[in-house]
Amino acid sequence: MAAASSSDSDGGRAESSEANSKWLDAHYDPMANIHTFSACLALADLHGDGEYKLVVGDLGPGGQQPRLKVFKGPTVLSESPLPALPAAAATFLMEQHEPRTPALALASGPCVYVYKNLRPYFKFSLPDLPPNPLEQDLWNQAKEDRIDPLTLKEMLEGIREKAEVPLSVQSLRFLQLELRDMEAFVNQHKSKPIRRQTVITTMATLKKNLADEDAVSCLVLGTENKELLVLDPGAFTILAQMSLPSVPVFLEVSGQFDVEFRLAAACRNGNIYMLRRDSKRPKYCIELSAQPVGLVRVHKILVVGSNQDSLHGFTHKGKKLWTVPMPAAILTMNLLEQQSRGLQAVMAGLANGEVRIYHDKALLNVIRTPDAVTSLCFGRYGREDNTLIMTTRGGGLLIKILKRTAVFVEGGGEAGPPPAQAMKLNVPRKTRLYVDQTLREREAGTAMHRAFQADLYLLRLRAARAYVQALESSLSPVSATAREPLKLHAVVQGLGPTFKLTLHLQNVSAARPIVGLRVCFLYNEVLYALPRAFFKVPMLVPGLSYPLETFVESLSDKGISDIIKVLVLREGQSAPLLSAHINMPVSEGLAAA
Amino acid sequence: MGLLDRLSGLLGLKKKEVHVLCLGLDNSGKTTIINKLKPSNAQSQDIVPTIGFSIEKFKSSSLSFTVFDMSGQGRYRNLWEHYYKEGQAIIFVIDSSDRLRMVVAKEELDTLLNHPDIKHRRIPILFFANKMDLRDAVTSVKVSQLLCLENIKDKPWHICASDAIKGEGLQEGVDWLQDQIQAVKT
Lengths: 593, 186
Ligand SMILES: Nc1nc2c(ncn2[C@@H]2O[C@H](COP(=O)(O)OP(=O)(O)O)[C@@H](O)[C@H]2O)c(=O)[nH]1
Ligand SMILES: [Mg+2]
Known about the structure:
Domain Bardet-Biedl syndrome 1 N-terminal (chain A): 23-276
Strand content of chain A: 35-45%
Low-confidence stretches of chain A: 1-5, 11-17
CATH architecture of the domain at 478-583 in chain A: Sandwich
Radius of gyration of chain A: 46 Å
Distance between the termini of chain B: 26 Å
Low-confidence stretches of chain B: 46-52
Mean pLDDT of chain A: 87
Bound molecules: guanosine-5'-diphosphate, magnesium ion
Oligomer: heterodimer
Structural class of chain B: alpha/beta
Helix content of chain B: 25-40%
Largest interface: A-B, 25 and 20 residues
Structural class of chain A: mainly beta
GO biological process, one term (chain A): cartilage development
Order of helices and strands of chain B: HEHEEEHEHHEHEH
Protein name (chain A): Bardet-Biedl syndrome 1
Shape of chain A: elongated
Strand content of chain B: 15-25%
Radius of gyration of chain B: 15 Å
Helix content of chain A: 10-25%
Mean pLDDT of chain B: 80
Strand order of the largest sheet of chain B: 2-3-4-1-5-6-7
Distance between the termini of chain A: 121 Å
CATH class of the domain at 478-583 in chain A: Mainly Beta
Number of helices of chain A: 7
CATH architecture of chain B: 3-Layer(aba) Sandwich
CATH superfamily of the domain at 478-583 in chain A: Immunoglobulins
Pfam families (chain A): BBS1, GAE_BBS1
Largest sheet of chain A: 5 strands, antiparallel
Number of strands of chain A: 38
Domain Bardet-Biedl syndrome 1 protein GAE (chain A): 486-588
């Protein structure tokens, strides 16, 4: 057992000591000679003995010697060479009946190699694609010796340039040859039919018809030919085929094949396409505007790592939820699932030698490793549930076990946006009416503005007209004539049937007194009686307010009230200087008996 | 006649029971060891497969054994810690062939030794470095190094390599425990 040489800490806080770390260092071998990525790691109880093994599709140093390695604890249990570089490894249950030991699938080149009990069991090959007819024709000519190798080479190169249908592997290999080897190659291969096959780029598993942890699963393959294939778990026939606009590189699958499922495929064009059970083509698309470097589904959220050093969260309909920047380039990603606590989080191995664990945007934990981690996976290994397996750029193997008492807590993270920012406001839903109105406003904005302006001018005009008319007929309590600037206001006192009506008349001119004014009351004589309906006003000295009192007798006992008009007149003129309407209150006292 | 009958008989503890806790990670071999120690007439009191953890209890003339797996993620820890108080001796079993989980066994041992009901008591601890017959097994010396047993200063302890299936090494351990309990009693 190697000495502990890595450490971890909760987000942001100073590096914690060994004692309060969340992880136990179970194993570290810097010379394990493993060169792989997360898609090629799998954990499973391959022998059905309760001891979980680690499967590694190893590229070999420099991608030269691809191998399938199986680890038990810290040591290699078995090792076998692979015919081509591995693309992905997965473990899955093929059938219901006992013993329920999972099979191992390893995707490599155009094939999936299936192992049971670690013995080769089945080899699935992708179906042949139709070859280029021109290419076929050339080889037919070569077969009948009607064409020499040099012309063949030129013609094939011509086809390759145009490349509507790519050349077969056979032709491509032929084009790589030196002149002297061509003849022999043609003689050896000319009688074979040419085959064109694509290769597998990614692989995942999809439950067949049960949601159980240990349910029979289908393999889902992504190919260089921009397709997704779903294979039958037992017969390895193609159950479904879907096409994509680009080459898939990462796959996330949820649901059950027979019921309903969702596929998310991150592609080389920087887009992530989402498909459902019945969609032959993508239903939603996320445009990353960067290259995806990892794709992990956490509950219902798709977390994508991009080559712009950040993690993005999306809903399964492609709506972006959040973005978290990383301090360094993301090398690999995988899911951390702590079943006993129902926690799912994303682990990201970074180029600066950190492994960061996030729950949504919240940083839960940072593990510092002696070398940058290029592949990682978390799960049951050996007999321990929460084991983290990491391999490093230099080929090292690191195994850590989560302490049984460890709890990941949110909020220990670095200074980020204040929590209030993430709080959702209770904005009421937009009604249909609101939406319609908004649309109408957007479309007919100018016309609406014009109509409003026209109405506003009309209103102003009417107001001005009414004002002029009021002035002309002296209907206002303020006289504006130059000679008699007067102000009038009236007060009614009492409960009835007798009221006291006081008129306050004021000369508002600066210095000139006013003489010769009369006051006249106009009223309904059935309802009211006034001792004097017409009287003389004394001389009005500028500035003073003259109270002119009179009694008003209400004659009706039916609770009726009316208006009494006050006119201020100049002697010898019939047009009043000013006028006022007095709204008489209802008489509350008993009518005069 | 099982080993235990001799143990309890020699001690002459017929009147008073001695409670022994047999602890260790799951799959370390506790049940196998206890079954070897158990006299043929001993009644397995109850094997309680409670959710989260299981306890095996049985009594022989004057010794009562409580066995449990120190597994799980903490939710039921306080349940088994409840038994610490009444324990008068501890047998801690380690699977010597499980290299990866040696750190977990150490972590569990450290937690046990720091528990308030254990920490300040001079309670004897017997370690079985079990499954020594397996090819992957490390020696008992290596196990005591990995578990840092030399740091236990205030409690008598002893480690034996054992093969519980064949019953090898168990006698040596039980003899040591017997001496310890007797020393405390007299
Ligand atoms: N080879 C070997 N296997 C053992 C030994 N002791 C126990 N086992 C096996 O280890 C497994 C777990 O033992 P068990 O007593 O149930 O462990 P427990 O979970 O601690 O009670 C069983 O398959 C035993 O047969 C031993 O000394 N050597
Ligand atoms: Mg047991």
